[in-house]
Amino acid sequence: MTQYKVPVIPGDGIGPEIIAEGRKVIDAAGERFGFDVEWEEFPHGADHYLETGELISEDSLKELSQYSAIYLGSIGDDRIAPGVLEKGILLAARFYFDQYVNLRPIKLLDGVWCPLKDKTPEDIDFVVVRENTEDFYIGIGGRAKSGTSKDLLEVHRSLYNAKFGLDIETDSEEIGYQIGMISKEGTQRVMEYSFDLAENRNKHVSSVDKANVLSDIYGFWREEFNAVAEKHPDVKTDFNFVDAITMWFVKNPEWFDVVVTPNMFGDIITDLGAMVQGGLGLAPGGNINPEGTSMFEPIHGSAPKYKGQNKVNPIATIWAGAMMIEQLGEKEAADAIVSAIETNIREAKVQTYDMGGSAGTSDVGDDIARIVLGK
Amino acid sequence: MTQYKVPVIPGDGIGPEIIAEGRKVIDAAGERFGFDVEWEEFPHGADHYLETGELISEDSLKELSQYSAIYLGSIGDDRIAPGVLEKGILLAARFYFDQYVNLRPIKLLDGVWCPLKDKTPEDIDFVVVRENTEDFYIGIGGRAKSGTSKDLLEVHRSLYNAKFGLDIETDSEEIGYQIGMISKEGTQRVMEYSFDLAENRNKHVSSVDKANVLSDIYGFWREEFNAVAEKHPDVKTDFNFVDAITMWFVKNPEWFDVVVTPNMFGDIITDLGAMVQGGLGLAPGGNINPEGTSMFEPIHGSAPKYKGQNKVNPIATIWAGAMMIEQLGEKEAADAIVSAIETNIREAKVQTYDMGGSAGTSDVGDDIARIVLGK
Ligand SMILES: CC(C)[C@H](C(=O)O)[C@@H](O)C(=O)O
Ligand SMILES: CC(C)[C@H](C(=O)O)[C@@H](O)C(=O)O
Predict the structure, then answer these.
(1) How far apart are CA A274 and CA A281, in angstroms?
(2) A1-110+279-375 is classed in which CATH architecture?
């Protein structure tokens, strides 16, 4: 019997409830496919932060880095200012473990209600590869002095003429600024991952940028995309401005196979993608470092108002669990979980409120575990 | 008879064709409501740039600044690298004239095909106020040396401890970076415009940001929003993360009344909004400086592949023309144009291909002009 040890961070709000169902289903898959998971719980999240002042310490991160996969519920709590937990735990982990791929399948499962007219599961089946460690997520910014919009106007106009110098003073309240950066290495590796993925799918990679306006950062992105594309002459490529791609996700989702996107735009378009595939309750994600520690999570938040009510849909988390065990090497078990999710949805007997049912979170977990076990 | 002089920049691709229909309809409205427009053509766009090297000169901008409204077709051409014309003409004008409001109505007209299930014209009727002169559109960025993703990681982690210094060297190819800034004055004025607008609508303003991650720039945005909101206690407010709002535009567009957004996020969500209201062929926009020179345009691009084919939908441009004459003071005529657009759509006899018809661009212009004239 193969043994795995998997750290789990249930987190805040509904996190513990949905993670319980994910574990239940993975345990069932282990029983059927002959592996055993020992779960090690980590306490990080709002309560732990309020009690101890620790978001996630270097020591905890070091401990977690011994594992190849982490199972994460959700992070976020109304008692704490927006961003503190998300940056201090979720983004800290993504950066610390250098999880440079955020893999988000956009797949409409058979039997799921889609908000779009005339679209079927055949039309909606692609994957977004979101760069996950750079761009505007690096957390560099501040407040600066001097700079009414008139000064900005001067700065802007001077661009047409010459180089400029930027003099940033802190401790002033006249301007808020933010800096994004992408590196050659950081961009190329996520492109390479995307092209490799496309080689095993429909050989089509679509890049997302806004190179016509944010030309410095995303002109660079485009160049690196072209450089990697050259090495894959059999893969079809195209560019999409981020504004336009939100239209195509709604109008022509069937166009896409693999979509590679900078971090921030990826954040935006994968929420839209989640809606197109039937809602956040169904959208899983993996933060992947192929050579290191990866982390799997539903892409939705901690939904504090549903906490402890046994009400929300655990499918995103269960699906993320399937992605995780696939990463661990249990491909057959992972497929069985996804197939069990599909059966549960097709049967439409045990579903949470968001899918029109009245079952509880744990009922859905029970049902999917039952199907996995072939009962 | 009131006389107006309006500069018009037909621009590239389909620009001249759609602008011709916009002028036709405004001329008809003038005939009916007793005003006369003298149109002054400006040549700016791809051909003019290729012939003369001028994008738009300070002299041209100065000349245009004598007017209170400009009518713009579309800018963009495949022969020229992405961004050159858009930044050199369109964004240059938005910045030069300090058109700090980009007003984009998202309204599903009766009889228009909506890609969303179960949504009717009653559900989709809101306005996006996009800040139009700051944020990541200021054009500041470059290439820098030093900075593999590991360095970025260090930078990121150091944030949890202390202030940092950023040493940017140019002429290197290792990093692409971009800087966005918003100012107190620039943010407050667009907030004030939004609240004033909401006072005359359904007294609800929704703010868009990503303050949980781009905390420096959008934390500032939130503070200014709160400061202006305090002066309007009768207006309901809420915050939306930009990722989440793409979901609500699809799932619950009926929630919104006035949506105020930073420039870049506004670019993204208004394209999505255009799709939700039936497609880019139907989405108008106004770049507004309430005390200066405003500029009205369809929000779609120059669609080079349709150039000269008398094929594309002129409704977005005609609608933008209605917004323009309303700004000039001809409210009754503006209402008559919008109502004529609605009649044309309801009758469904003279429509372009995107709406399922087979009429040409000029047929639609003729039909709407006829309706305006009450013929
Ligand atoms: C919670 C937040 C920091 C996070 C992000 O912006 O990446 C979330 O929206 C996501 O998409 O995983
Ligand atoms: C053409 C481009 C520069 C422009 C923008 O990004 O603002 C366009 O997308 C728009 O929305 O008007």
Answers:
(1) 8
(2) 3-Layer(aba) Sandwich (3.40)
Closest Cβ–Cβ partner in A149, A179, A180 for B133: A149
The model's pLDDT over A156-206, given as tens digits with 9 standing for 90+, comes to: 343 333 323 333 333 345 788 888 889 888 999 999 999 999 999 999 999
What does the alpha-carbon distance between residue A325 and residue B34 come to, in Å, rounded to a whole number? 73
Residue of A84, A120, A183 best to disrupt the B interface, most CBs of B under 10 A: A183
- Domain spans, chain B: 1-105+279-375, 114-134+182-277, 139-180
Q: Which two tokens stand for residue B46?
A: 């791809």
Which residues in A75-115 belong to E strands, given as ranges? 101-107
Using CA positions, which residue lies closest to atom 12 of ligand 2? Answer: B299
Question: Looking at residue A144, what is its pLDDT?
Answer: 63
DSSP classification of residue B143: E
Write the Ramachandran bin of A124: left for phi over 0, alpha for psi from -120 to 50, otherwise beta: beta
Q: What is the mean pLDDT of chain B?
A: 91
Following DSSP, what letter does each residue of B26-85 receive, concatenated? HHHHHHHHTEEEEEEE---SHHHHHHH--SS-HHHHHHHTTSSEEEEEE---TTS-TTHH
Q: Chain B within 8 Å of A82 (Cβ-Cβ)? A: yes
Neighbours of A253 (CB within 10 A): 20
Q: CB under 8 Å to A28, separation ≥6 — which residues? A: A369, A370, A372, A373
For atom 6 of ligand 2, the residue with the nearest CA is B267
Q: What is the mean pLDDT of chain A?
A: 91
User: Chain B contact for A134, CB < 8 A?
Assistant: yes
CB contact under 8 A, A269 and B246: yes
Which contacts (CB < 8 Å, 24+ apart) does range B339-343 have? B340/B25, B340/B368, B340/B369, B340/B371, B340/B372, B341/B109, B341/B315, B341/B368, B342/B109, B342/B110, B342/B111, B343/B371
Q: Name the band, by pLDDT with cuts 50, 70 and 90, for residue B148.
A: very low
- Closest atom, ligand 2, to C-alpha of A213: 3
Q: Which residues pair with A3 in a beta bridge?
A: A36
Report whether B202 contacts B257 (CB < 8 A). Answer: yes
CATH class for the domain made up of A114-127+182-277: alpha beta
Structural class in CATH, domain B1-105+279-375: alpha beta
Taking the C-alpha atoms of residue B135 and residue A214, their distance in angstroms, rounded to an integer, is 11
Q: Please judge whether A243 and B268 are an interchain contact, meaning their C-beta atoms are less than 8 angstroms apart.
A: yes
Output the DSSP codes for A192-256: HHHHHHHHTTTSEEEEEE-TTTSHHHHHHHHHHHHHHHHT-TTSEEEEEEHHHHHHHHHH-GGG-
- Cβ–Cβ pairs < 8 A, chains A and B: 271
CA-proximal residue: ligand 1, atom 9 (nearest): A267
The amino acid sitting at A259 is V
Q: Is B162 on the interface with A (CB under 8 A)?
A: no
Angle at A10 between CA B157 and CA A350, to 5 degrees: 140
Whether B243 and A130 have beta carbons less than 8 Å apart is answered as no
CA distances from A313 to A11, A306, A318, B75 (A): 16, 11, 10, 46
Q: How far is Cα B61 from Cα B65, in angstroms, rounded to an integer?
A: 6
Q: Which residues pair with B298 in a beta bridge?
A: B284
pLDDT tens, A105-123? 999 999 999 999 999 999 9
**C-alpha B323 to ligand 2 mean position (Å):** 19
Q: Which ligand is nearest to the CA of A104?
A: 1
Burial grade of A324 (CB within 10 A; 0-12, 13-18, 19 or more)? buried
Q: How far apart are CA A326 and CA B9, in angstroms?
A: 56
- Rounded distance between C-alpha atoms, residue A373 and residue A367, angstroms: 10
Query: Minimal CA–CA distance to B198: which of B268, B129, B286?
Result: B129
Q: What is the pLDDT of residue B176?
A: 84
> Do A210 and A222 touch, CB atoms closer than 8 A?
no
